[in-house]
Design brief:
Pathway: Lipid metabolism; fatty acid biosynthesis
Family: Belongs to the thiolase-like superfamily. FabH family.
Radius of gyration: 18 Å
Number of helices: 9
Shape: globular
CATH superfamily of the largest domain: Thiolase/Chalcone synthase
Largest sheet: 5 strands, mixed
Helix content: 25-40%
EC number: 2.3.1.180
CATH topology of the largest domain: Peroxisomal Thiolase, Chain A, domain 1
Strand order of the largest sheet: 1-7-6-4-5
Subunit structure: Homodimer.
Distance between the termini: 28 Å
Strand content: 15-25%
Active site: 110, 249, 279
Oligomer: single chain
Length: 328
């Protein structure tokens, strides 16, 4: 029993934060940001808009795209739940009118959407669910120090979603195999130190914001994404030459380009929307999928490689042949 992608949705906050606005406040410039990240603008959620709000909007679009009003489970990938406790997925399910369904959060940060896809695929393979709504949503700007020129230009907010249904492994849209990995020994490379059980409170306000060691993360990301990608290609019996589109986590344009180079993929195989969205953490892959579906970059039957790297450290990859989807 395979998990088959059959619906797709996305939602971005209306507020656009352009590089020029950041440069006017911090010691940076539009040219500096673009040259190092590939980002020109990002979206920022208004104070009254939460992760659950965004997840509901993207989830509703994905359900409409799939022509469904009911699913058996909701898996929400997020590092920014509305509350530390309880999980946000049950609230999303309730807001969507899905009843008392199985609903769970997955936190693998920027790799979260891939982990959520694997979790949902497991539900389907195990007979726990036949239809699963998978959402990646993060208001990651809430974790960014507004005075940190190293992180403010990078991150944005948003949500993307897919619907998976039970089907056959040879169908268009069937996911897998998966490769998922982690290295907690390097957790401090990307970390929000305070707010959890280990350090519930801190006198240093910066401890509540993301601490990122950018160069060390860069060195890890391309290598790890390429390793996971090679693993799933080998498991599936695909070669690099079989890949039509590579949709990586939209963290940094140079990371995407480096990963493609390590794999031997042509640069024109990359699906990239980071210029307009920034790094939206767990939302980035489904947002990129939605953009590429709308503009015709993704076509039914194309062989697509997905890969991500994030805090934890976590990383992974999976494959599918792109299905015929209804745009919403």
């Amino acid at each position: 029993m395979a998990a088959v992608l059959c619906g797709l949705g996305a939602w971005l906050p209306p507020r656009v934060l352009a590089n020029e606005e950041i440069a006017a406040r911090l010691d940076t410039s539009d040219e500096w940001i673009r040259s190092r990240t590939g980002i020109a603008e990002r979206r920022v959620a208004d104070p009254g808009t939460s992760t659950v709000d965004m997840a509901v909007a993207a989830g509703r679009q994905a359900l409409d795209s799939a022509g469904l009003t009911e699913v058996d489970a909701v898996v929400l990938a997020t590092a920014t739940p509305d509350q530390v406790c309880p999980a946000s997925a049950p609230q999303v399910a309730a807001r969507l009118g899905l009843g008392e369904v199985n609903a769970v959060d997955v936190n693998a940060v920027c790799s979260g959407f891939l982990y959520a896809l694997a979790t949902a695929s497991g539900f389907i393979a195990g007979g726990i669910a036949r239809r699963v709504l998978v959402i990646g949503a993060d208001t990651f700007t809430t974790l960014v120090d507004p005075d940190d020129r190293g992180t403010v230009p990078i991150f944005g907010d948003g949500a993307g979603a897919v619907v998976l249904r039970a089907g056959d492994a040879d169908e268009l849209g069937a996911l897998g195999p998966f490769a998922l990995h982690s290295d907690g020994g390097l957790a401090e490379l990307l970390m929000v130190p305070a707010g959890g059980a280990k350090q519930r409170r801190s006198d240093n306000p910066h401890d509540y914001f993301l601490d990122m060691h950018g160069q060390a993360v860069f060195r890890q990301a391309g290598t790890r994404m390429a390793e996971a990608s090679r693993s799933v290609l080998e498991q599936a019996g695909w070669t690099v030459g079989d890949v039509d589109r590579f949709i990586g986590h939209q963290a940094n344009i140079r990371i995407l380009q480096t990963t493609a180079k390590y794999l031997g993929l042509p640069q024109d195989a990359l699906v990239v929307n980071i210029e307009r969205t920034g790094n939206t953490s767990a939302a980035s892959i489904p947002l990129a999928m939605a953009d590429a579906q709308r503009d015709g970059t993704l076509l039914a039957g194309q062989r697509v490689l997905l890969s991500a790297f994030g805090a934890g450290l976590t990383w992974g990859a999976t494959l599918l042949r792109w299905p015929a989807l209804a745009n919403v």
